[in-house]
Amino acid sequence: MDNLAGRIASNYALIEERVAAAGGRGRTRIVAVTKTHPAEVVRAALSAGLRDFGENYAGELIAKAEELRGEDLRWHMIGHLQSRAIKGLAPHVAVWHSVSRAKEMDLLAGLEVRAQLLVQVDYSGAEGRNGVPPAEVAALVDHGRALGLNVAGLMVVTPQIDPPARAEIFAATRELGEVLGLREFSMGMTDDFEWAVREGSTMVRIGRAIFGDRPAAEPAGAR
Ligand SMILES: *Cc1c(COP(=O)(O)O)cnc(C)c1O
């Protein structure tokens, strides 16, 4: 294993331990977020044994998926979905974490997508934030089910507030999903994943704690 793969493997092992210590062993999957990192980093992570990778930008996900075609891995789309990008993403994505509009579901259904799909919940109520308000989640889940989509769970990104306050958001998300019969909860990132795991997360999305700090600027054309 080269240096990079070795470093990724030891960072990942540490995350696994912390997930286990928070009660997530056998329940919480670790999705390695590779946004802004080149395909070689994904290759190194593959040789370190990682299999689940998250990307935020359609163009970047598709480029890496094509470069790594044939590898044994699963791509997770975790960023804001743009309708026009859905068709290009569909052949590559195993889990759609950020569905937040009926129109996106209509497009996914039209493409006969069988992949798991999560509805992103937004508690901030702020303009321009991705996700649907909690009060609208049930209707969107019903819409997806009526279309025959595999609506598996909920996803949430917390605002930059104290971890204890984030724990309340994670708990509220899990309760909301359980009422609707959903089992997957994509909750937790580098700064707060232990709080999320304690509240029932089944997928944590970890970037910096595995790969180090990202370059400040997103690569040109990534969106
Ligand atoms: C970037 C990103 C992550 C990973 O964030 P880290 O803080 O690097 O762990 C997780 N989820 C979403 C939606 C992201 O955009």
Could you characterize what this model shows?
The protein is an alpha/beta fold and 223 residues long. It has a single domain, classed as TIM Barrel (Alpha-Beta Barrel), CATH 3.20.20. The chain is built from 9 helices and 8 strands. An 8-stranded parallel β-sheet has the order 7-6-5-4-3-2-1-8. Strand 3, helix 4 and strand 4 form a beta-alpha-beta unit. The longest helix has 19 residues, at 3-21. The chain is globular. 45% of the residues are buried. The mean pLDDT is 95. Pyridoxal-5'-phosphate (PLP) binds next to strand 8. Pyridoxal-5'-phosphate is lined by residues 33, 35, 56, 78-79, 157, 189-191, 205-208.
In short:
By secondary structure, this protein is α/β, with parallel strands linked by helices. It contains 9 helices and 8 strands.
Unreliable parts: none
Distance between the termini: 32 Å
Architecture in CATH? Answer: Alpha-Beta Barrel
State the shape.
globular
Question: Which key phrases capture this entry?
Answer:
223 residues; alpha/beta; TIM Barrel; eight-stranded parallel beta sheet; 9 helices; 8 strands; binds pyridoxal-5'-phosphate
List the helices and strands and how they pair.
Elements: H1 3-21, E1 29-33, H2 39-47, E2 52-55, H3 58-67, E3 74-77, H4 83-89, E4 93-99, H5 102-110, E5 116-121, H6 134-146, E6 150-156, H7 163-179, E7 184-187, H8 193-198, E8 203-206, H9 208-211
Parallel strand pairs: 1-2, 1-8, 2-3, 3-4, 4-5, 5-6, 6-7
Helix pairs in contact: 1-2, 3-4
Bound molecules: pyridoxal-5'-phosphate.
